[in-house]
Amino acid sequence: MWLLGLSWALSMLATMVGSGSAVPPPGTASIFADLSAAELAAVRSFLLSRPELGLSPSHGGPLAKNSLFLVELLPPKKRLALRYLDQGGPRPQRQARAVVFFGGQAGPNVTEFAVGPLPRPSWYRPLSFKGGRSVPFTARPMTMREYEELHRVLAAAMAPLNRLLRDATGFWYHNGSCQHPRAGEGDGLGQRCLTFSDVAPRGLASGERRSWLILQRFVEGFFLHPVGLEVLVDHRDPDPRRWGVRQLWYSGRYFSSPQQLAESYERGTLEVARLPLPPSRQLFSSYEPRGRFTTGTATKVHGARVCEPQGRRYRLRGNLLEYGGWSLAFRLRSSAGLQLFDLRFNGERVAYEVSVQEAVAFYGGHSPAAMQTKYMDAGWGMGSVTYELAPGIDCPSTATFVDAHHLYDADGPMRFARAVCIFELPTGVPLRRHFDSDFQGGFNFYAGLEGQALVLRTTSTVYNYDYIWDFLLYPNGVAEAKVHATGFIHATFYTPQGLRYGSRVHSHLLGNLHTHLVHYKVDLDVAGTGNSFETMDIRFENISNPWSPGARESPSKTGSWVPTPPNTHPTQHPHVGFCPVPPDRYHLAVTRHHENEHSSSSIYAQNEPWEPLVHFESFLRDNETIEDQDLVAWVTVGFLHVPHAEDIPNTATPGNAVGFFLRPFNFFDEDPSVASRGPVIVRPLDPPAFTRLQIQRWTPASPGPCSAPAPFTYNGTYRQD
């Protein structure tokens, strides 16, 4: 059995033990591989060639048109995949998932299609959501074309406010395009443009599409440069000519129109927040070094590095990754990010799927944009913003880097270089070790096994925030899912009233309080698909001491494991915080596997959270038995972020990481890492002199030139000099 290790509970899957199967050849893993650039292009060409769809290019042209928004792999149904992987059945047909915006017709909507067979598609059919609901057009994610129209509307609306903005900020909203300012050029402030960040949900009820926009000075790290003006734009109508500004908020006051705000400024009745011009160098929101460490230790030299003295100890063939006892297939889906399939240890399947489902951030604040912000990042293309990883920073220089191709709001496949990296990481702590003292200043033996893990990593830069997504594989059969949060905080303009909802992190900047929650799907198939779910707890007993009659221990140190009924459904634990989205009500929920419950969220949840297309609560309401069934665990992890001055310029990764473990529990006869040839055993040959030692190891005496060149030595004594 495998443990789903969380900080608050011990959760166990009791399994029906079955015979293991061999590690699949690389060709079988390819059924889960992302679509190639050629396949993405073929799907797009095929759909654009169908006259009944009437598709136009995504970029350019009117907003009210039919366009292809997203193409990605449509994974095979689980039963078909298992028949192929385990029973030698037919290879599942390769298909694509295509998302089409039908905006150029009466009754606009969003429709998803299955397209196949690949690599030469010849048919398409509509896909449906659980319950057969259609996707309203207002639920669609934002596109670059819609942002262009928002910019145009905002530029026209800001014209009456140019004097106010110039006087108060030294910047104004330009009608044309602005280039990002570069440090060292001119005054470093470029054209002194204002830009904006939009927040979501886009309204207060289903069917709305009203967005609050935060105006910011367009300098490096503009997320930290709000100017105190927030604007509500209604952009529901497919015709942008019917859009308009409905409300404004400036420095704590609401206004019904730009003209009303401008008139208040002209009359002198407006309290103006005047901002000094930002410096051209060492801007507080930049990464440029500033200040000094007091110890004077070296910082102008490179720090420690990961090296592979005898080469890589993992193997990557296509999307099949192997390391020690582990093997898995992986993909980087454009909609939500990393997805692992067919996770095995020593040929035995542990999980059919482990994947990221959703990342949400709920904010509080005094300004309208802050109080409205409830980000659901699958709706912002969380899996498609996997920008290039920097060797030596984002991943060790020794890592293997993998490119990704996305077709997301684009007129063709886009290559994202170095979107994924794979590397073996020294953990800095031994996997196991023991020093066996003789309690006389010497030892009987020392033994230790160095700690390493294989890391599969990507990042998602969802506008201001950067998420670092990791899956780690350890030699002892433990797997870990982890996410680090970094990047710029989502900040608003400081007002005294805002201190109830955050911290003043700079002179005119409020870091808003928020909660990060991340949802994972863990389809565990431990020794087969017939699994049960069980929780275990400890109960203390007050008992008579059997070896000293009449004596009692209170409280007793003797505890017994008391399993709760295995049909507990769902498992609900207390959760501190405001969690309006159903998946986040549970630290852990366990359901039976259903093909129409393949994901707990969708790309439409952000703009239609009131009547979501994927209603996670419905997964639980059927009250099905979860004993000896094909089970899926849905795991929520998260943390509360109270921004502070040290979040400037960016939130740092230490202390801002969460995750969970999958741990074997009586599944093996012993720790499977005993198969590693990495341990070192030291035994004294002449105690109590300890002048001759026997050092046993199964790897070369010296790891190589990138480490200390001298052979391993060990003394182990702790005698007085």
From TrEMBL:
Top EC class of this enzyme: oxidoreductase
Coiled coil stretches, renumbered: none
Copper amine oxidase N3-terminal domain ranges (all copies): 187-252
GO MF: copper ion binding; diamine oxidase activity; primary methylamine oxidase activity; quinone binding
Required cofactor(s): Cu cation
Signal peptide: 1-22
Positions of post-translational 2',4',5'-topaquinone modification: 465
Residues at the catalytic site: 377, 465
Cofactor note: Contains 1 topaquinone per subunit.
Keyword line: Copper, Metal-binding, Oxidoreductase, Signal, TPQ
Keyword Signal in record: yes
Post-translational modification: Topaquinone (TPQ) is generated by copper-dependent autoxidation of a specific tyrosyl residue.
An example Gene Ontology biological process: amine metabolic process
Keyword Signal: yes
Enzyme Commission code: 1.4.3.-
Location of region: Disordered: 547-571, 702-721
GO cellular component, one term: plasma membrane
Lineage top rank: taxon: Eukaryota
Domain Copper amine oxidase N2-terminal: 39-122
Copper amine oxidase catalytic domain sequence ranges: 305-547, 585-673
Family: Belongs to the copper/topaquinone oxidase family.
Name this polypeptide is given: Amine oxidase
Organism: Semnornis frantzii
